[in-house]
Amino acid sequence: MKIRQKLFFLILGITVPILIVSGIFSYIVAQEEITSDILSELNSIATIEKSWVSESIDRNFERHDAITSRTQLRLSIANYLEYPNEQDWNKIHKILHDAKIAIPDIKEIHFLDSDGKVLFSTEDDYLGRDFLESPLFQNAHYKKIVQTSTANHNNSVLNISGPLRLDETFLGVILVEINFDLINKIISEPLSFGKSGELILAKKNENGDAQIISPLLFANYTQIIIPKENIQDPIIQSVMQHQNTFTDSVSYNGNLVLSVTRYIPETDWGLTIIFDKEQAMMPLIKIQYTILFSVILIIAFAIFTSLYISNSVSMPIKNLQKATREIAKGNLRENIYVSGDDEISSLAKDVNTMQKELEKVQKQLVIEERLSTIGELSSRLSHDIRTPLSVIKMAVDLLRKTNKELDKNQIRKLDQIDKSSSKIQYLVENVLDFVRTRAPKYQKVSLLEIIKNLKQFVQIPENIKIILPEKDFQITCDPNQIEIVLENLLTNSIEALGEIGGTITININEENEYAIILVQDSGPGIPEEIISEIFDPLFTTKIEGTGLGLASCKSIVESHNGTLTVSNNPTTFKIKLPKNPQT
Prior knowledge:
The radius of gyration is 59 Å and the shape is rod-shaped. The strands form 4 sheets. A 6-stranded antiparallel sheet has the order 8-7-6-11-10-9. Strand 1 (106-112) and strand 2 (118-121) form a beta hairpin. The protein folds into 4 domains: 3-62 and 190-283, Beta-Lactamase, CATH 3.30.450; 70-178, Beta-Lactamase (2-Layer Sandwich), CATH 3.30.450; 332-436, Helix Hairpins; 440-578, Histidine kinase-like ATPase, C-terminal domain (Heat Shock Protein 90). The protein has 13 helices and 18 strands. It is of the alpha+beta class.
């Protein structure tokens, strides 16, 4: 299997499972977050609704207290119970009717005597009715109690009963019927999280089952009783005084719901808030589609990316293979173009660098082979050439001294012979200086003294001015070799200035542990296209040059652990030598 295919299947094999797992995980997390948020909101609403119901009951307790606290009512009932008379009868009826009119939410007010019979009432039909067996009478001797009627909720009432006493004497029970609509109004308000939410009030009946006493949104009647055996039902839990949250409960209409429960101790009621789970999880459907779309989109992107990456990897490798084959054939000019900044592009750059280095090495080997040949040849011919040159120069000198009658033409020809002989000798010495490898003979010398000695060996034309440095310091070097370098650089500067003339400035200074020598001329400068090659052996722009002068200078400086560089504008050769080299 090729790298492209391996990468393609590898990326898909990693991406697709991660996407599926992350999608499932995101769905579960979203479900938990939605459930947690809704339950948190349900809890908040349940707490608020419980508070409102409790406050409403407390207000009705206060209304009951407002009736039982009337001194005239208690005195009149006490007198009537002891001595029945029409005057007290009328007073009592008036007080009860006035209280009913004063408090609009009160439907009827009844007084039950110690036998549980209705003795006084704002509704004549209630007179004489027996409540002896009713909890509204039996449980109201010492405290106020709350009960709802068992009629349908269109005519339901909230019954609040409590003792009527004069000092410590129990006179009877005041039973107040209040419109249940007050409670219904509180619990029937639309809940903030949608139409699928519902608040349910329930109480225990005589069998201990949970009887719903609040109007229901999803039922036509409210006489719904939930058996106490359904212990997991949140409504049963609420009347059992448990305050819990349920994530998978079933409501009275058979739907799966989220629910919370609260217990209202003032009334012994249970309060339950439910929210349809299917409605609650509606955002998950959008999340499902979003995840599915994202998975498809990312898989498509992964396929495109895997193809792109596999191609971006395989194609450069193919180029590298092609380049290495060309290198193996000896073609060192075949460059590899790979864009980017990754490992493969770095490898391609390294291969290109290797090609250039190999090309340089190849050129260097050719040069070294040529230099070796030149060295061998120069060593053989140096003696043979020097001897005839010495004879020629001596003969020219002898002719000049012995023959005083030479004409101008003969003198010119003798000068040409002498000059040509000197040039041949210079070229031979230049070659020998380059091919001879001599270690520096270090000694402590004055740099300024070396520079001043140059005038003895270099002929300076009248149109060229030499500016020497003013300061001086000592360095450790081979003075003869450094003199050769400076002589060569000074000669090159003179030749660069030519007939035009100009100024050559030599400066010396210190830079930490190094001595810096600058040879600067006011000539036209070195062409930029060849400035990087002037130190190469055998490179020259002179018709009569060997191309070994600057190469020899660089070799000598480097043997001193220094550097020789050149720059333009103006042309400046910089020699950097350690002042105290490790010898």
